């Protein structure tokens, strides 16, 4: 890619609460645009870690199983679980620990999403979203447990009874892209740019989603540069072989890289501010203790033959 650019062309909030964003990436030389666009689209649609809601567990007062019925409530427990699963939440702050939302609703009335008392850091995309109809003699009481992906096992092992898992839904609704040549008269031999269109359900802005996907894609590809470098050149001819460039890389701030919030917490907890801090940490600890994303980052750094002394 030559003279790389990434910027937003347009964005809007649609009537249904969905978010739309169009982004220009490029220009790329020759057919590289198609290769990159396909890879990025597949990453967006296939990688669950990029676009799933936090795991949500439901506990309904007085209910033992999902096939039960609730007196005075028109919907069955299965219908309520399905309606709760369709609610779209927007995270104002990243989830670092489990949080609880609760509801005590007395009939008669129509229960909507706005009646649920959410914990701090959450808000509804559509507060008027329908959940259930409660009759005069009906009472519906439940709790929602929001947990990060890494905390799912701990919640399942807890002593809380009658927990129902509300399966997370994809935040990404649709992804399209168009490739346009900088000079249409030259067709395939011309530099081309990618115009990426992303629709989300309103929980995340399309720009954050696409930046996460680009970061994930690059971290997956970088480790292979080590294998390619070995076959094409000797260690002495690799990039960063001179001391000045090596010193600049080692002292590069971690904040220059795009990681998720949990990894930034990991860096802060272990006082890792620069790449050299990260390499020193790996030297003292086993690499197996790192997450998959951090392992890829580590292999990317070492693909340049950086050795700690």
UniProtKB/TrEMBL annotation:
Keywords tagged on the record: Chloroplast, DNA-directed RNA polymerase, Plastid, Transcription
GO annotation terms (biological process): DNA-templated transcription
Pfam families on file: RNA_pol_A_bac, RNA_pol_L
InterPro entries in the record: DNA-dir_RNA_pol_insert, DNA-dir_RNA_pol_RpoA/D/Rpb3, RBP11-like, RNApol_insert_sf
Coiled coil: none
Domain DNA-directed RNA polymerase RpoA/D/Rpb3-type, residue spans: 20-225
Gene Ontology cellular-component annotations: DNA-directed RNA polymerase complex
GO molecular-function terms, A-Z: DNA-directed RNA polymerase activity; protein dimerization activity
Name this polypeptide is given: Plastid-encoded RNA polymerase subunit alpha
């Amino acid at each position: 890619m030559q003279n790389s650019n990434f910027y937003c062309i347009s964005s809007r909030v649609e009537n249904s609460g969905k978010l739309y964003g169009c982004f220009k990436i490029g220009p790329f030389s020759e057919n590289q645009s198609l290769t990159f666009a396909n890879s990025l689209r597949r990453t967006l649609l296939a990688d669950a870690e990029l676009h799933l809601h936090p795991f949500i567990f439901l506990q309904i007062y007085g209910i033992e199983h999902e096939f039960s019925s609730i007196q005075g409530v028109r919907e069955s427990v299965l219908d309520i679980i399905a309606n709760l699963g369709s609610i779209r939440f927007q995270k104002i702050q990243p989830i670092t620990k489990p949080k609880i939302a609760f509801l005590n609703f007395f009939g008669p009335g129509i229960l909507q999403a706005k009646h649920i008392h959410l914990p701090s850091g959450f808000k509804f995309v559509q507060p008027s979203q329908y959940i259930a109809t409660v009759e005069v003699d009906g009472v519906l009481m439940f709790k929602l447990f929001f947990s990060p992906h890494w905390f799912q096992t701990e919640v399942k092992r807890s002593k809380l009874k009658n927990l129902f898992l509300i399966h997370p839904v994809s935040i990404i609704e649709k992804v399209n892209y168009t490739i346009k040549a900088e000079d249409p008269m030259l067709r395939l031999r011309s530099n081309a740019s990618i115009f990426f269109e992303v629709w989300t359900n309103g929980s995340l802005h399309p720009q954050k989603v696409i930046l996460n996907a680009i970061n994930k894609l690059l971290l997956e590809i970088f480790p292979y540069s080590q294998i390619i470098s070995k076959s094409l050149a000797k260690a002495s001819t690799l990039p960063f072989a001179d001391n000045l460039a090596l010193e600049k890389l080692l002292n590069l701030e971690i904040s220059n890289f795009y990681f998720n919030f949990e990894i930034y917490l990991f860096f802060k907890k272990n006082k890792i501010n620069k790449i050299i801090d990260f390499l020193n940490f790996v030297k003292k600890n086993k690499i197996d203790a790192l997450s998959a994303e951090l392992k890829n980052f580590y292999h990317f750094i070492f693909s340049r033959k950086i050795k700690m002394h």
